[in-house]
Design brief:
Blueprint (H helix, E strand, L loop, with lengths): L4 E6 L2 H12 L7 E7 L6 H12 L3 E7 L4 E2 L5 E2 L6 E7 L6 E7 L4 H6 L1 H7 L3 E6 L6 H12 L2 E6 L8 E3 L2 E2 L3 E6 L22 E5 L2 E6 L5 E3 L4 H11 L3 E5 L5 E6 H10 L34 H5 L21 E3 L3
Helix pairs in contact: 1-2, 6-7
């Protein structure tokens, strides 16, 4: 099995390239290189590719950009620079006939298979590394088409970037699926380097900041009828230790969500007693400068006689947190 020489560096692209070249050493780099960059360096990828090609002598490069990269530091410890300028480089020396680059495929894989027919028949590729462009809606179908046309097991992923979406497959490309196929005789070990493993039941994330999960829904839906009072909602939230409740109609169909902050607003800031959890669009902004004094047209339905009577109440729906689908109540978690 051919080995790899690897390097990882952070910083401006010139600094990162120089650091990678120093780590890789002065000897020739090998025939095939893998280059991954964070999207901070997406615009500099042509210059990075030119500098690495000149510094290593490696002509064939495969790679793309993402929000983060993975590799090892100088001490061999795994590191994953995220949301900062970074490069990860791998070099290997494989025979020229042991791999075949896949230039951009935007539609059918048939033309590639036809052009590579002789190599495919001789090499019998067992593995391919591919990168897909997320802007191409056919990317999943293209990957399946490549697997069918070549018989190879495919690994890889989507290009991810907040800047450009370049890919490398011998040259810079974009817009489709690109990568490399390995002949049957190339020994390869694959593994999952990024992903998640469930540690409990499926839950719905209801609040997040970038990649940090702030709030997830409970596995069991906590709900209350739409004619319930806000006080009932507050008591139920406290009893169940949740921050949101699903509001259901008479047929137990979800019609919205009432949240802890809106409950506190009704009971505290607006000091409304016996308000119901169903709230009209625009609340609480629709209350205007004198909340509670002129509810007509803001809270629906509203009956002045009922409101004036003991136990009377206003009818409100929490549109600010209303969601479609199957909303559930949520506990806050920091991650």
């Amino acid at each position: 099995m051919a080995g790899f020489r690897t390097a990882l560096a952070t910083g401006p692209w010139q600094v990162a390239v120089e650091s990678c070249l120093a780590t890789l050493g002065p000897e020739p780099g090998g025939r095939l290189g893998f280059l991954y960059a964070t999207d901070h360096l997406a615009g500099a990828l042509p210059a990075i590719l030119e500098a690495l090609t000149k510094g290593t002598g490696t002509a064939d490069w495969v790679g793309t950009v993402g929000l983060g990269v993975a590799g090892q530091d100088a001490g061999g410890a795994p590191v994953e620079p995220f949301d900062q300028p970074a490069l990860a480089v791998m070099l290997t020396d494989l025979p020229a006939d042991s791999y075949r680059l896949i230039d951009r495929i935007e539609g059918s894989a048939a033309p590639f298979a036809a052009a590579s027919g002789a190599w495919l028949a001789a090499a019998q590729p067992t593995l391919g590394l591919v990168h897909g462009d997320p802007r191409n809606p056919r990317s999943p179908a293209i990957v399946a088409d490549i697997a069918t046309a070549t018989g190879a097991y495919l690994v890889g992923g989507l290009t991810a970037s907040r800047a450009g979406l370049p890919q490398l497959a011998g040259k810079l490309t974009e817009g489709g699926v690109s990568g490399v196929l390995f002949a049957q005789g190339v020994g390869v070990a694959t593994g999952l380097s990024q992903g998640c493993t469930p540690i409990g039941p499926s839950r719905l994330v209801t609040d997040a900041e970038q990649t940090i999960v702030e709030e997830v829904m409970t596995s069991t839906v906590v709900s209350l009828p739409e004619n319930s009072n806000i006080e009932d909602a507050s008591d139920l939230m406290e009893a169940k230790h949740v921050r949101r409740l699903v509001v259901t109609d008479d047929n137990e169909v979800p019609v919205g969500i009432v949240s802890m902050d809106k409950v506190a607003l009704l009971l505290g800031v607006y000091a409304i007693d016996n308000a119901r959890v169903r709230e009209p669009p625009g609340f609480p902004e629709a209350f205007g400068p004198s909340p509670g004094t002129d509810p007509s047209g803001h809270l629906e339905p509203f009956d002045e006689a009922e409101a004036a009577a003991p136990g009377g109440g206003r009818n409100a729906r929490d549109q600010g947190d209303r969601q479609s689908g199957d909303p559930q109540s949520g506990d806050r978690q920091s991650g």
